[in-house]
Amino acid sequence: MYRSHVLVCGGTGCTSSGSQQILETLKAEIERNGLSDEVAVVQTGCHGLCALGPIMIVYPDATFYALVKSEDIPEIVSEHLLKGRVVTRLLYKETVTPTGIKSLEDTDFYKKQHRIALRNCGVINPEVIEEYIGTGGYQALGKVLTEMTPDEVIQTILDSGLRGRGGAGFPTGLKWKLAKGNDADQKYVCCNADEGDPGAFMDRSVLEGDPHAVLEAMAIAGYAIGASQGYIYVRAEYPIAVQRLRIAIDQAREMELLGNNIFGTDFSFDIDLRLGAGAFVCGEETALMTSIEGKRGEPRPRPPFPAQKGLFGKPSILNNVETLANIPQIILNGPEWFASMGTEKSKGTKVFALGGKIHNTGLVEIPMGTTLREVIEEIGGGIPGGKKFKAAQTGGPSGGCIPAEHFDIPIDYDNLISIGSMMGSGGLIVLDEDDCMVDIAKFFLEFTVEESCGKCTPCRIGTRRMLEILTKITKGQATMEDLDKLEDLCYYVKNNSLCGLGQTAPNPVLSTLRYFRSEYEAHIKDKHCPAGVCKSLLTYVIDRDKCRGCTLCAKTCPAGAIIGTVKNPHIIDPDKCIKCGACMEKCHFGAIYKK
Amino acid sequence: MKSLEELKAIRERMQNQVNLRESGGQTATRVVVGMATCGIASGARPVLTALSNLVQEKGLTGKVTVTQTGCIGLCQYEPIVEVMEPGKEKITYIKMTPEKAAEIVERHLIGGHPVEKYTLNSADVK
């Protein structure tokens, strides 16, 4: 038995900032100090505060160390683990107060969060099934198999009000009910772990931090709809998630929590992994199932819906990772518990991946109905550098922008749709005054053009034409007629594409047009990019009065575009300038500006 | 897994260990062991281990946190263990051993009655 547990984050974020080496050093130092029998080292999943990684938490006192380096480990071991003296300089500074150390749960980042899907992330070792069981794991499966009928399970999920967390928000219980209603010799439960939105990593973190929760939920779903086989479709670009899923499946099989006659009942269920090659369209349900079948991942028209004819032509359900992670908790705590959180039509919590111009880049789980202001200013810690908030982008390439005027809107499925965005899978990218909205729309459209599978014409050609117009706008070559044409094309592509990818691809353009039309017009009429992003519309100029003639800019310029002699004002040759901005960064006198 | 009992057995075995991480250092009662050089030299480490193990074995992790602290200046009385309960005066135990620690867990942490004979108050401190 250990008196202290040291948790080291092994999520992708912290791993990329060196947590594996920290883990090794920590084990070696603990050994060297003869503490191996007293202190346990536990590798966990993501704790959310990725911006401060690598993260290390020491229990039982819950000391939270941030930005830990290998060199710090000997001090932490000899001071804290041995003598009990907290290494204050390495603490997450939010927890340090004049009167002592504040609990992590009381920090701005954590205090408004409510972790259900992420409940075990950063708490248990995802590679040890016993730890999951220790926090109540597989109890829900046991309860379902021994005490509930499949209809009761479905009713529980329906009553909880849980809606799909992948983005569209379809009621999960209804999906299950439809699949159960279709008789067949074989049915399938699929898990969509093909998280592809730029900037989104909620599902990856759940798989890395709590893989058994997903397995347990899939088995529950299998029991509810009458399926004996499950597939997890996960991106090959998520190596840590894939590895932990493999370990989890092996352990669950070994303990006979997957396999035949689970808990001595008639119910048998097994799960296999299928690795996706990273095509965005494979997150669409019909394309995903086609890909599992071993064919080229392309969508097909619906109906028939997967609940009727899905994988291998059999009734199937597809649930997102985060959706599934909620299921065992709903079974154990009851549908009323879940429905007590959130708004009228959106129950429970939602995980968001915060990114862009925000202090606390990372993962947060908040009750539905939390306002954007709370998420960005309180939990996210606001925008760095005192810049002004411009918009939040949600839903990735399928979503849209929420401007400052909607800062106080409670976040739920229906509210976001009513203001022209969508929940999406949970990516939340914060944009400030230095971001150009036309450029943002162009960025997402470049992504969809690249990822369009090409099966239907509106999406394949329509999105490309839209991108061409956007490119013209950012170069200052477009006319107001082009803008009308762009808008028409948006509606055309939206209404005529085969699957969700094309149907939602115009959203980033439509929502920026809705709230930031003046920026588009400035690019077209005034040949000016208000945020100073679009290079073709910028000129760098040296202020004659401020320039001291130090020649630093001329030496820095990679294009040799700056002319001048020592102690005389320099000038930039606009024909040679490549607008890289290097001179502006170097100038000590603030003499170079963009116009 | 052929029965719910099997699952329950694993859960109970693991629960107290995992609970150590859930309390978040916010339990009502705190047991603090002096682990400065003086404490370690007089044998505080086995005391700390014994306390920590017993608290986990007896399923007290949800209520009691066992941690270390530095030197409180009474080096000749080390190993020192302090028990802090909300709304009660802090009890300081001196010259602890793992055996005495077991008594404290049993009688003080579980039973609710401080073991007077080991406290600093009972010693003749000038």
Give a quick precis of the structure.
The complex is a heterodimer of chains A (595) and B (126). With 595 residues, chain A is α/β, with parallel strands linked by helices.
Overview of the molecule:
With about 600 residues, chain A is of the alpha/beta class. Chain A contains 23 helices and 19 strands. Chain A has a 5-stranded mixed sheet with strand order 12-11-15-13-14. In chain A, a hairpin with a 5-residue loop joins strand 11 and strand 12. The radius of gyration of chain A is 27 Å and the shape is globular. Chain B has a single domain (about 5-120), classed as Glutaredoxin. Chain B contains 4 helices and 4 strands. The radius of gyration of chain B is 16 Å and the shape is elongated. The model of chain B has no long low-confidence stretch (mean pLDDT about 85). The interface of A and B includes residues 85 and 131 of A.
Low-confidence stretches of chain A: none
Mean pLDDT of chain B: 87
- State the major sheet of chain A: 5 strands, mixed
Query: What is the percentage of strand-forming residues of chain B?
Result: 15-25%
Question: Order of SSEs of chain B, N→C?
Answer: HEHHEEEH
